[in-house]
Amino acid sequence: MQSNIIYTAIGDSLTVGVGAYLSTGFVKRYEKLIYQKLQAPVITRVFAKPRIHSSQLLQMFSNPELQRSIQQSNIITISIGGNDLLKANRKYKKSKDPKIFEEAENIFYHNVRQMLFEIQYLKEYDYSRPYIIQLIGLYNPFPKISYSDYWVNRFNHVLYSFTGNNIYFTDIHYLFKHYNKRVLPIGIHPNGNGYQIVANELAKTLEYYPHHTK
Fold first, then answer.
1. What is the pTM of this model?
2. Cα separation of 156 and 164, whole Å?
3. DSSP labels, 164-182
4. 1 confidence band (pLDDT: 50, 70, 90)
5. Strands 5-11 and 42-48
């Protein structure tokens, strides 16, 4: 057995697990998969709030408790962007100005870039501890809106643009689109099936974890 794996989950309502009801969100499900794949005890810490957008999440990075957790972490997941897009859409419905989405995308890009900078800054003093950062992609809860897929893809491209070295992008858009009501039966949040998909897709990246043992 390896020493403990520290897993820090950062983000919005997806990380909180809203919509899972009597089951669990992806964090607990992913924790189990980490244990199975890496054969090491997992200590999980969650820093997340429902309805939070990327600017608010970036502010959370000044929290000393979150900073300590990041420094100690081997695995970090970040779910953010959905509320940025929803907020932009509310504004767009009033003005019909497509620049609203472009501005939201630009702010999102800079916020995520700063988050990753903060993480790497906190990690640079301990080269001995292997770690990966996993950016969870957006899905489309409103597929009937004609322009929705386009902007979900644009925001996902922002997240994907940061991949490299120890940063990975987890794409769930296609799978959620394929399973449709089986993962998003009511409202905008996944059910247990949806959260299991998120956990399963995250787990695929564990083969790149530096100390992975098969």
1. 0.95
2. 15
3. BTTEEEE--HHHHHHHGGG
4. very low
5. parallel
Q: Measure the CA–CA gap between 80 and 4, rounded to whole angstroms.
A: 27
DSSP β-ladder status, 167-170 and 132-136: parallel
Q: Classify residue 211 by its DSSP letter.
A: T
Please give the backbone phi and psi of residue 139, each rounded to the nearest 5 degrees, phi first. -115, 175
Kindly provide the b/e burial profile for residues 198-214, where b requires at least 16 CB atoms within 10 angstroms of the residue's own CB: bbbbbbebbeebeeeee
Determine the Cα–Cα distance for residues 214 and 207; give it in Å rounded to an integer.
9
Tens-digit pLDDT profile for residues 59-89 = 999 999 999 999 999 999 999 999 999 999 9
- Cβ pair 34, 75 in contact under 8 A: yes
Please count the residues of the chain: 214
Cα–Cα distances (Å) from 213 to 78, 96, 123, in that order, read: 24, 52, 23
Look up the CATH number of domain 5-204.
3.40.50.1110
| Residue of 129, 92, 120, 110 whose CA lies nearest to 6 | 129
CA distance 102 to 97: 10
pLDDT tens per residue across span 9-64: 999 999 999 998 878 999 999 999 999 999 999 999 999 999 999 999 999 999 99
Hey, what are 75's tokens? 């695995």
